[in-house]
Amino acid sequence: MMYWLKLVSFFLLCLPLCACTCTPPNPGIDSDEGYFSGTLLSLTPEQAVVQLDTTDSTIEPTLIQSYSEIQFFPHLDGEFSPLTPKVGDRISGSYPMSHPIKQITDTRAEIDIYNWELDDQRLTGTVLRIEDNWVVLTPAESDPLRKKTDEVWLSRTELLSAKSGNEVRLSLGDQVEVFYVRELSTFFPPQVTVIDWGIL
Question: Whole-model pTM?
């Protein structure tokens, strides 16, 4: 009899352990991170103002979508580079949704942010020419840039920098993808600012 009592007691003691090790984490906890994208309207060391892109289907509707503009402290490090955002750039960022939103005007709110950066886009194409300072691509037929130009010039300095100085050799006819920021330049040569790339 004592044997069975001990066996039952051992089984009962093990039940909480089984429950702890087999129950998955609670998936119902919502993330506090919200996202935004838009165009940079003004930028000072103390304040950035962004016109929100309300047509961006990748951004879930949140309280800031009630406004057409947001402002925030930009946290600039004082070191400017080609990738430092400037007025007119498309940018994206994230912010803590649990923090209060301060209404500035009927159309503008002030928020705290986690981070923000230049919005990147993707280009695919074929290597057409390789020159001393440039790699020239022909955008793929399906690429949006193909409607604007038959050639996109990529700075070899930027291509090298994107790979942290480790040169990746390209050949004529290579299929590549390029991640870039800002729009295609309106002057010759037509170029974009490269932040990453790879051979397909």
Answer: 0.68
